Every structure is written in structure tokens, then in C-alpha cells.
User: Fold this.
Amino acid sequence: IPSEVKINNENYIKDIALKIYRIYQQRLKVMNCVDFGDLILHCVTIFKTMPEILELYHNNFKYILVDEYQDTNFIQNIWLNLLSKKNNNLCCVGDDDQSIYSWRGAEVKNILNFDKLNANTKVIKLEQNYRSTQNILDTASSLISNNEYRLGKKLWSENSKGDLIEVNCYNNGYDEAVAIADEIEKNLSNHNSLNQISILVRAAFQTREFEDRFIKINLPYRVIGGLKFYDRAEIKDAICYIRIIYQENDDLAFERIINTPKRSIGDATLKEIHKISKQKNINLEQASLVYCEQENPNGKTILSLKKIITDIQLWRKLSKEISHYELTERVLDESGYTQMLMNEKTPEADSKLENLKELVLSMKNYSNLQDFLENISLQTSIDEDWNGEKINLMTMHAAKGLEFDVVFLPGWEEGLFPHQKSIDEKGHQAIEEERRLAYVAITRAKKKL
Assistant:
């Protein structure tokens, strides 16, 4: 645990991280605060330093059952071993082939090494599957058998062999979305429920082409575990930038982008701009120019306000010279929006950047900006009836634990799945986890894949 790690001057990055961590922990202590990780870490520290407390919990819990053990992390496993040490009655249930959360700290080694670290362990393999056909199970087993680090099992089912797995290749994502939508319509003609149809993608940005297609042909859908593509904050921000360029009277768009990224234009400033807008019956952009004339010309807020308005006016002129999708790329870069996300250096920010790239790509399907904005208006105005019959769209991670009669798995192509960024960061370890993710995706299907 962190308190036991020593600075050894052998690894500069780790030593710096440890120093920063200790300063951070000291600040938390001064403020009488704990963060989420501390909730377990402090518990482990108490168990290690106060044997009487550990004894109390040993007496409270004679038998311990852990579910989804493959998703436990390093510190959770230490805590669990301390808690179960005295009575040694520990039952851990899990599937090493479904360990897909290393990006949030899960350690597949916990389940792989359990029987080696715990004497007299009895391993019971639960190999009968009650969900899928044998053909689906054979496909999943064949794929996951390529992993080097796994316990191994042979899945079988009393269900029928079922349909063969259908594999199709397409020239691009659009053709793939069209083909899958056509196949779903065929399923409907056979009176199959939309609720029992799911499309599982590796990355959230992939839902866009399916959403566009489903709306065009009037197929209802829901996005599980996330927002619909055009409801995501970064997509709304980008579209608002484009809307204000296209229509200067779009006050809602202006208000959304005026301080995104942060430009020191706060609520008090916006309140004054709104006041001027109402008094003079002018739009917010014009009111902002009036506000700039009334205030200190060298103030930080005024300089920022003038800069963004000047940029908007330049982009309007530029919109007559370059394509709408090139304009969008320029706006995202020159506004600082792309850089804002790059500076975050988080998986969430990376996902947002992927979504923005997908947005720009989608704009190439429209001849001009007006056509694109009209299509967006159609998409965002559709009423949401969550409980109705709908196709299920989600990432593979969000699908864990779910099952559907029919499952489509698009985008199994180099760079996307296995995901290139994961491979670049973790190499062979990432390949094994991507394969486990594929195993999870395949085994969501009950009848047809």
C-alpha cells in the first residue's frame, strides 16, 4: 500500500508521483477529508495497525461470499484477505474471461492466482451455460482460448446448436449501418421484439451512424449506459458553435458557447448582457458588443468577449469560402475547444475527441450546413419513450450482465477493435483484455449473432 512504498531514486516518474501523492494525502488530512480510494485504503490501514478492530470483524463475519471477483482491484483484494484471514471461509465467484475493467483498476491476477495464494482452495468450474446456443458458445470458446493467461473452461449448453454465426464485410461504417438496419427490419417482419435486439460497439462514437440511419427509416432505439450521440455535451457544444455562425440571432447557442472553453465570462456578465438585450431588443451577440463599449476596455472579461465575437464574425466570412465540415474543424481548433479536451488527458476526454471527429465525418454526408442543421433539429426533437419497443445501442462494456435474442457486433476492424490506443499503452496485456471484451460481447447473444 502507498504508506509502505519507499522513494528509491531509481524511477524518477514513480518517485515524483509518490511525493505528490503524499502531499495530496497530507492536504486531505488537514481538511479532515477522504477521497473515494481512501475509503478502502484507510480500512486496510486500520486492519493492519489495530488488531483488535480486525478481530472484531473476524468475529462478525464467519463466511464471506464475493461475486464478480474478476473485477476486484489491488487494495480490495488486500482488504478481503485481511477480513477472511482468521476463519478462512472465503468463496469467490467470478469469470476470469470476463475481466474487462483494468482501465479502472481491476486486476485479473486476483482470480488467476487465487488458488496459488490460498491453500486448500477448491475450484468448481461452472461450465453449463443457460443463455446461448452451442454455436455461439463454441465461437466464444474458440476465440478466448487464444489468451495465454486464463484458468480455462469448456462451455456447453443443453440448448440447440442454433444458427451459425453470420460474418459480413462492408466498405465503410455507413454501409454497415444500412445493412444492419435492413436486417433488423427483416426481424420485425418475423414479429421479433425490438427490445430483444442489441448492437454492441467498442467505442461510444460508433453509435452515430446507427442513430442517423434509424431516425431516417423511423426505427426506434435507445442508448444504454450513455447519452444519444447528439445529446452528448461536446456534440451540443460543437453544434452550438456552428449554429451561431449560421444564425446570429440564435441566443441559446451564443449563451452555451460564450464561455466554453472558460474565458472569464461569468454569470454576472451574462446577466448584464441579457439586460441590454431586453432593453434594446437586440440579440445577445449585439448586446455583448454594446456591453464591451460600456466597460473598461482593458478588462480581462471584455478582452475575452471581444475576442470570441471577432472569431465568430471571422468564421462567418470563412463559411462562404470553405466546406461546412472544414469550418467545423477550424472552429473547434481555433476556439480552443479541442485543446481544452486534449489538456484533460483522461479516457473521458479521449472519448469526447473521438465523438467530435465522428461529428465532422458525419457532416460530409450533407451538401451544406443548412441541410446538416435541419437534420440535427429532426434528431433532437424526437420524443423519448424509454419503456417502448426499441433497439438497444450500447458499448460492449455497458452490455456486461445483459442478454438479447439477437446481437450485432459492428466495427471489428484493425485499430478500432482491438482498440489501437489500448494496445499502444499496454501491448500484449491489452490484446488479452480486448479478447476478453470480445468474449463478453459474443456471449450476450442468446439465439443469433
Q: What stands out?
A: Residues 12-30 form the longest helix (19 residues). The two ends are 44 Å apart (CA to CA). The longest strand covers residues 197-201. The CA atoms of residues 209 and 362 lie 8 Å apart.
